[in-house]
Design brief:
heterodimer; A: alpha+beta; 32% helix; 34% strand; disordered N terminus; disordered C terminus; B: 73 residues; mainly alpha; 40% helix; 0% strand; globular
Chain lengths: 170, 73
């Protein structure tokens, strides 16, 4: 069955049977029901406004000076904390470390681990800025698993070692 | 190489989560070439094998442990 919609600006002919539009509606209704049911069961339904704990590991170009890195971190963290609604709970500078393999011809990197909570909708912009920064060799944003936030991030005593322990072991 | 271990080493150690930043612990679960040990050798329960496997992959991405070890030269 063809339905001609002559009321619209462009005359559109929608090829459909009578079920076409109702089925679409049904699908969204079903989706809502699923969400509702999951919510009633007590499942966590992720909404955009939800605040969660995150952990980010940054690897900076090790030729950067510490103040420059601190300034970059402040800039990144302003995107997720402060007026954006989140808080930074911990920032740990591991310092310079040998990379297990070269990244963009760099043999070492400056590692920083940050814990923060923020709403999920801040993350796309946050990650976009991180991707644009050439001095940031790599970053990893993950959800902070409960126990990890309690675990103190202890400084690595042997961080200046050549990391050849992995190929020497049995 | 194969250890006749019946119980999961992570369960025994009592820790509940595996940290992808702790490359010294993760080093116990990779071969000298950097591969992830299979369950029949690591002896881990399914849950912990899964968590360790994810942690190792994250640690590799962060260049804490190599993807392939001992091939240079």
């Amino acid at each position: 069955m063809l339905v001609a919609d002559s009321s619209s600006l462009f005359e559109v002919v929608i090829p459909c049977d009578l079920d076409y539009i109702p089925r679409l509606h049904r699908n969204t209704a079903v989706a809502k029901q699923h969400l509702l049911r999951a919510h009633r069961r007590g499942a966590k339904v992720q909404r955009n406004g939800d605040v969660r704990d995150y952990e980010t590991v940054y690897i900076f170009d090790s030729s950067l000076e510490e103040p420059a890195i601190g300034e970059k971190l402040d800039r990144y963290h302003a995107l997720v904390a402060g007026e954006s609604g989140g808080t930074i709970t911990a920032v740990d500078h591991w310092g310079k470390r040998q990379l297990a393999y070269p990244i963009e011809d760099h043999e070492s990197g400056y590692y920083v681990v940050a814990h923060f909570n923020t709403s999920a909708e801040q993350l796309p912009e946050f990650e976009r800025i991180l991707r644009l920064d050439e001095a940031l060799l790599r970053y990893l944003v993950v959800i902070n698993e409960g126990d990890l936030s309690v675990t103190p991030i202890e400084p690595r005593p042997e961080r200046d070692d050549d990391d050849d322990s992995s190929d020497g072991e049995d | 190489m194969a250890r006749n271990r019946k119980s999961c080493p992570i369960c025994e150690s009592g820790s509940r989560t595996i940290d992808h930043k702790d490359e010294r612990t993760l080093a116990r679960f990779i071969t000298e070439r950097g591969k992830i040990l299979p369950r029949r050798i690591s002896g881990m329960c399914a849950r912990h094998q899964r968590q360790v496997s994810t942690a190792i992959k994250r640690a590799r991405f962060l260049a804490l442990i190599p993807y392939i070890a001992g091939h240079e030269g």
